[in-house]
Amino acid sequence: MLSVSALVVAAGSAAIAVLGGFAEAPEKPPPAVRPGEEVDQDLFRTKVVDAVVRTLPAEDAGGAGGLGSGDPHTVLDLTLRVYNTASSSVPIAYLERALLRVAPPQGRPLIEPPPGPGAKPSATPSAGPGEPAWRHDMFIPQQGVDSRLLPPRLTSTVVVRFPVRDGLTPPDRLTIDLGKYELHEDWFTKRTRPELVVGPGDEKLVAARVTLPVKRGEG
Questions:
Q1: Are 86 and 181 in contact (CB under 8 A)?
Q2: Which domains are assigned to the chain?
């Protein structure tokens, strides 16, 4: 003999089936962080400082801003303050991989990772054939030669530089998605290595999202 509770559950299940099943819960947006606030990326602790469009003199060839034209050139600089938590220097490429997406709230992204096998299509358009695409370089400004190594247990200023080439217009605002690392142990060698945390659909998990205005500077 079925209990009353079992009959209620059965009736509810039948009603859900008739109505088309359970509705999918909306995805929660990533945690929003204000500019200047620290984001824990496990391998790094990162602050997004500012984004500034500036004109560099011809002799300034730092990062991707050095176009070799011999003329002043315009760049968009995204500045980060990054503390390396590791006990040894880490190549800046690890930080670059954790910069999952840089884009205006609407429009073409400046940085967007290649889609994974289960990734959803992007809502923002990519550059079409013949259209200029955003390029970037990431470096640690230093006197003499720019560095691409984050020293251990120290905070470094990191610049992500986007040359503003013909056909490109800097946005008024940027949204930055930051990923997070976790240690994985190799089953064969037993050595550990940092890997970005992956969420549902094999997409990189966004640890924090920072939105900030793009300022206009003189140099």
A1: no
A2: 29-118+133-216 (2.60.40)
